[in-house]
């Protein structure tokens, strides 16, 4: 009940699209009964959580923040949602995002942008200079980052204890960094995507947003493992994700990718990154500079592969099976076209168009096939670094701390979700686990996070080091 009233108090953040209050109260009551009767409890029994609105939830509207799916009520739960419910978690509602998770601001969904709770924090307000924009002026609130900004705001504003996001190119780690949270992107194939409405099937992973590393490990322990409904999930035993206390980091080798010193990186984030490397070194870890030579191609490579997969994924939204259908009925084709024009925003339509362009017969080899080759080179860069003895890579997560909404939307909405993903996207192309760990507050009083990246299926080690580091 406290969480539900907190949701009401913080409604202005626009973190939730749907609050499933009645269902949540019923789940909480059942949990209480189990407790009173001394029955076996699940790992998350009675713990309120939130789910990004691109995961299917049985009986609860699932919109992807798009007109296309408004009113769509899935008949089944995503595997990850079912696993959380099976452990007694109380599902409070569905959180806001960029339409179909395309973006990195949580500003482009049909329900409007999500506000970063830190816009209203004492730390931020006190640090702002007099006469500078005042945060209580409506126009000066900050973005959460995205696209899982609703989930990040929900956890950061204390409306729930954990939330699911999705991470295709950084969408869990990016808002975690800007909202001061732990944001975990597990290894591709460790967690089932069944019921996660796809953006880029070959890169999508359910992500976990929590306030500390231990909580993320608990949730990962519940979610991880083979799912017969997702053939890309590993059949190997996973877990247990019970983190040993790491006292000695002297056997660790930490890599600092030199290509990540990009021009757009803020001097404060840069300074914090160096400080963190020094910390590892002062505690005995070996810190080495490494090279990921294909980094500069990652944004364009991601763009070609992402939009190509988007073009084929979005073909299912034709006005027949799901959600929206327009009133045009002169022909089937006219109905498809009008439905899709009405249903998708310009970001989604733009990606469908560019994806179809890359997939045209005459372009296929020059764009799609070439991008797949570049993706392999990007993935191999990481493999080489890890094979050279590096255990973990330490990098920034975002270029800077959160920016005001009015600044963010000045850029064209197709470019604004690109450059800022420089530290996160190649990780998805390589399928590796990575985590944002909140590190410090900037001079503006806003959270800054750093990213740790591990080798494939080293999620346990990654979390262990992240906990030492947090
Ligand atoms: N910002 C990236 C994009 O727009 C990543 C999104 C995501 O991870 N869902 O595609």
UniProtKB/TrEMBL annotation:
**What is the top EC class of this enzyme, as a single word?**
ligase
Q: How does it assemble?
A: Subunit of the heterotrimeric GatCAB amidotransferase (AdT) complex, composed of A (QRSL1), B (GATB) and C (GATC) subunits.
Q: Which GO terms describe its molecular function?
A: ATP binding; glutaminyl-tRNA synthase (glutamine-hydrolyzing) activity
From-to range in the entire protein, with total length: 182 to 651 of 683
Assigned keywords, A-Z: ATP-binding, Ligase, Mitochondrion, Nucleotide-binding, Protein biosynthesis
Q: Write down the EC number.
A: 6.3.5.7
Superkingdom in the source lineage: Eukaryota
Q: Report the locations given in the UniProt record.
A: Mitochondrion
Its annotated function is as follows: Allows the formation of correctly charged Gln-tRNA(Gln) through the transamidation of misacylated Glu-tRNA(Gln) in the mitochondria. The reaction takes place in the presence of glutamine and ATP through an activated gamma-phospho-Glu-tRNA(Gln).
Q: Name one GO biological process term.
A: mitochondrial translation
Q: Name one GO cellular component term.
A: mitochondrion
Q: For this protein, what reaction is catalysed?
A: L-glutamyl-tRNA(Gln) + L-glutamine + ATP + H2O = L-glutaminyl-tRNA(Gln) + L-glutamate + ADP + phosphate + H(+)
This chain is encoded by the gene named QRSL1
| Similarity-based family | Belongs to the amidase family. GatA subfamily.
Location of the active site = 52 (charge relay system), 147 (charge relay system), 171 (acyl-ester intermediate)
Domain Amidase stretches? 1-463
Protein name per the record: Glutamyl-tRNA(Gln) amidotransferase subunit A, mitochondrial
């Amino acid at each position: 009940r406290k969480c539900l009233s907190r949701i009401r108090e913080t409604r202005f953040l626009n973190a939730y699209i749907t609050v499933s209050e009645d269902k949540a109260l019923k789940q909480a009551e059942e949990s209480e009964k189990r407790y009173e009767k001394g029955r076996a409890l699940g790992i998350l029994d009675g713990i309120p959580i939130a789910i990004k609105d691109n995961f299917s939830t049985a009986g609860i509207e699932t919109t992807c923040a798009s007109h296309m799916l408004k009113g769509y009520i899935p008949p089944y739960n995503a595997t990850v949602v079912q696993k959380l419910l099976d452990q007694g978690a109380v599902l409070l509602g569905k959180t806001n995002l960029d339409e179909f998770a395309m973006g990195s601001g949580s500003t482009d969904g049909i329900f409007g942008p999500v506000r970063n709770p830190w816009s209203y924090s004492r730390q931020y307000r006190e640090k702002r200079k007099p006469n500078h924009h005042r945060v209580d002026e409506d126009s000066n609130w900050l973005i959460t980052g995205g696209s899982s900004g609703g989930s990040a705001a929900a956890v950061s504003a204390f409306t729930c204890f954990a939330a699911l996001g999705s991470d295709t190119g950084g969408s869990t780690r990016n808002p975690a960094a800007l909202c001061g949270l732990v944001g975990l992107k597990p290894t591709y194939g460790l967690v089932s995507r069944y019921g996660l409405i796809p953006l880029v099937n070959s890169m999508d992973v359910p992500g976990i947003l929590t306030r500390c590393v231990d909580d993320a490990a608990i949730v990962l322990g519940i979610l991880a493992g083979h799912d017969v409904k997702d053939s890309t999930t590993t059949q190997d035993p996973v877990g247990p994700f019970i983190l040993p206390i790491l006292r000695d980091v002297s056997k660790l080798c930490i890599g600092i990718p030199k290509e990540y010193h990009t021009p757009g990186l803020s001097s404060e984030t840069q300074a914090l990154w160096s400080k963190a490397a020094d910390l590892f070194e002062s505690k005995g870890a070996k810190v080495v500079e490494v090279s990921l030579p294909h980094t500069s191609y990652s944004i364009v490579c991601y763009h070609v592969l992402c939009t190509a997969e988007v073009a084929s994924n979005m073909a299912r939204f034709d006005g027949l099976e799901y959600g929206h259908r327009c009133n045009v009925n002169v022909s089937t084709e006219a109905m498809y076209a009008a439905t899709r024009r009405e249903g998708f925003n310009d970001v989604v339509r733009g990606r469908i168009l560019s994806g179809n362009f890359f997939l045209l017969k005459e372009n296929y080899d020059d764009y799609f096939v070439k991008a797949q080759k570049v993706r392999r080179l990007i993935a191999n860069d990481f493999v080489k670094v890890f094979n050279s003895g590096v255990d973990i890579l330490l990098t920034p997560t975002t270029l800077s701390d959160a920016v005001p909404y009015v600044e963010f939307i000045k850029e064209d909405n197709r470019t604004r979700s690109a450059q800022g993903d420089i530290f996160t996207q190649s990780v998805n192309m390589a399928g590796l686990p990575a985590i944002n760990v909140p590190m410090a507050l900037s001079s503006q009083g806003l959270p800054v996070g750093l990213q740790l990246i591990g080798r494939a299926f080293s999620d346990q080690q990654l979390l262990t080091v992240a906990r030492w580091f947090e």
